[in-house]
Amino acid sequence: MAEESRTVGQSSTEGCVDQLQFLRDKLQKFQSKIMGDFEQRLSCMIEDVMQDVRQQELRAQEFRQFDTSRGRANHASATWHNRQQQAFATAAENDVRDCPNGRVHAQNGTTPKQEQQQQQQQRQDRTQRRQLPDKVFVARESYLTALLQVEHMRTIYHIFSIILVMFLLNVIFYDYFVEGRINLGLGTFRTGLKRLHWVLGAWLLEHVFVLALYYAFQGWALVRAKLQSHKSLQRFWSHSCLILYISAQFVFGYVSTSLCLKFQLPFISACVLLLESTRLLMKMHAYVRHNAARVLQGKQKTDDDGELKEARPYLPPLRCYVYFLFAPTLIYRDTYPRTKQIRWKFALARLMEVVAIAFFYASIHERHIREYFGQFGKEPLGPSQLIVKIFGMMLPSAVILLCGFYMILHSWLNFTAELLRFGDRMFYKDWWTSHTYDGYYRNWNVVVHDWLYEYVYRDLYTYVFKGSKVIASLLVFMISALVHEQVLGFGLQLFFPVMFMFFGVLGVALVFLMRSAPKTLGNICVWFTLIIGNGTMISLYSMEYYAKRNCDLRYERWTDYITPAMWRCYH
Description:
The protein is mainly alpha-helical. Among the domains are: 131 residues, no CATH class; 218 residues, no CATH class. The chain contains 20 helices and 4 strands.
């Protein structure tokens, strides 16, 4: 009996030991997992802190050529931020956020009228708290200009410069030894810049229209001030001028697009006219939108008889408007940060970069785009040939994307900014580090993004959709996609809305799909989709353009104009 009880005791003890061992193993695995996650998070946090420290060290020494009379702390904090929240004052006695249901009880001595005033003040405070930040201009260099002050980044710049030189030498030797002449892409310039004198004439006439808008706006503001005592007549005058202004904007855009079709402008000339027309439209709207708010909020002054009357509205002088027309920004201000002098060597270097990349583009067109798609519509085409053509353009399309960014957003805008001594050079941000498409769209082209944010998104958010950020953002995406498609469509003279689908549909979908992506994986996905999407888009537009030229197509019904030419060629 004793032996049996001893056996049972040993078995129960062994069972407890096994359970404790099992529990210890589980706790050890749990502890190791917790410690692993903690170490991973801690390493990520340390890496972020070290990256911030390195960026802070870079910021402390990247703006030597500008005046540093202001405080270093304020200057460093505003280096890479171009917006600040609007300041507003809220009286302490009117702040009723801690009261139940936002009300002040009557037993505290508040009358119903005072309570109603307090509720109105509370609503105004909530509205003020929802105000979006304003664009601010600060004297600063572009990201790449700042980064190229670091020796390692400057070495990478030298490497890419040598690669570009070697590519151009390859083109020169190929043209000389194979074709017997040196072309350097001049054929592309000759065909692409045909009828450029018509573009120049239209550009000058557009500036006459833009200057006429300045005096028309002055006339509206002065007549409105004189009609202060006649409210109904003042509203009628303002509404009539608003209708005329909107109509003039539509006519301005219609004329530029119709000239591309009437004069049969080649792609480069058409893009110059369309992009300049779009830029002037955005400039005009920025000036009118900024100064119309001033006029509508005009201050009143008291005359000698003690009566209130409307003060003469402030209208900026013509020199401010003319400087804004040529300044590399789309946001109107009366004054901008200015540099002390023009760095002619810096400006000449940027101009030479623009010329070099232009020749590089011409060579890519002749050696890749025309080589792959020049006979499209005449040659047989199957799935294998189509895949080879599209993927053969992936690398050249990636080079086109990067060189286009560098040529326009860095070299050209810095060149014009240097000539005009324009101080704020933040035309883009570090979009190449973006791990979401939110960050990519915000940082890729800050000049256009600021205009869309300041004059489209804010007005839609404040006055149309009343605080709905999602709907306002989607409408901004649609407007931007339509304008991009309009430039490409009329530049190539075809209806083929691939840009609209890629930008306005797939791009918007990627914004929501990639918001929760990890940084490293997200950045890889952004670059992968950019290269794939850009290569596919350039290939499709090239196929459509050459199919329309090479195929003998008839346009008898309206559907023939919207059906892709590449589809009609092979079906």
